[in-house]
Amino acid sequence: MKFVVMSDSHRDFDAMNRLVQKQLDSTDGFIFLGDGAREFEDMQSLYPSAEFYGVCGNCDMGSMLKSTDILRLGGVKVMITHGHNYNVKYTLSTLISAAKAAGCKVVLFGHTHIPLTDYDDGLYIMNPGSLSHSQNGKKTYGVLEIKNSQVLINTAELRD
Q1: Count of alpha carbons within 13 Å of 96, Cβ hemisphere only?
Q2: What are the backbone dihedrals phi and psi of residue 18, each rounded to the nearest 5 degrees, phi first?
Q3: Is the pTM of this model over 0.85?
Q4: Which backbone phi and psi does 156 adopt, to 5 degrees?
Q5: Do 140 and 128 form a contact (C-beta atoms < 8 A)?
Q6: What is the chain's Cα-based Rg?
Q7: Could you tell me the domains of the chain?
Q8: What sign does the dihedral 36-37-41-47 (CA atoms) show?
Q9: pLDDT tens track, the chain, 160 positions
């Protein structure tokens, strides 16, 4: 199974729509990690046959999305969150502890606008960066692949 992971679109509807259009036929679903709930809801309406999972971020005032969720994808428990409630701009230790305590094999978060892939004692960690205001000046997203309970994570740049 392949999932496209996106975060921090901050009203950049065009970037999110381009990513969804490019990946629609080659992915099993889209995971949104907050700060752009309006665009995320628009994608769900525009592409009703696609699978979408999402959480809200600190800039998603009035959103009905949860701030953290646990999904079971391809037999693997995946924690998704924006990250602001776990102080991820300062440390990942609280987030990592929470994901491990929940029995997750993968944790996906946003908020920092910095793409990251890491591994910590059985836990795959990914931040896809930002679809709008990336720290490195690029629009980035992530890919989560699960096959036979094996996990592969990576980040990529959204190009025109």
Answers
A1: 13
A2: -60, -45
A3: yes
A4: -145, 165
A5: yes
A6: 14
A7: 2-157 (3.60.21.10)
A8: positive
A9: 999 999 999 999 999 999 999 999 999 999 999 999 999 999 999 999 999 999 999 999 999 999 999 999 999 999 999 999 999 999 999 999 999 999 999 999 999 999 999 999 999 999 999 999 766 789 999 999 999 999 999 999 998 7
Residue 16: which residues within 8 A CB-CB, separation 6 or more?
6, 9, 36, 39, 40, 43, 131
For 4, 31, 52, 92, 148, the CA distances from 20, given in Å and listed in that order, are 8, 11, 11, 28, 25
Alpha-carbon separation of residue 69 from 2, 14, 19, 21 (angstroms): 19, 26, 23, 25
Q: Which residues contact 12 (CB under 8 A, 6 or more apart)?
A: 36, 39, 131, 132, 139
Length of the chain, in residues: 160
In angstroms, the CA 109 to CA 85 distance is 11
Residues 22, 14: Cα–Cα separation, whole Å: 12
Q: Which two tokens stand for residue 62?
A: 């009035």
> In 98-137, which positions are buried (b, 16+ CB within 10 angstroms) versus exposed (e)?
bbbeeebbbbbbbbbbbbbeeeeeebbbbbbbbbbebeee
Query: What is the C-alpha separation between 20 and 107, in angstroms, rounded?
Result: 22
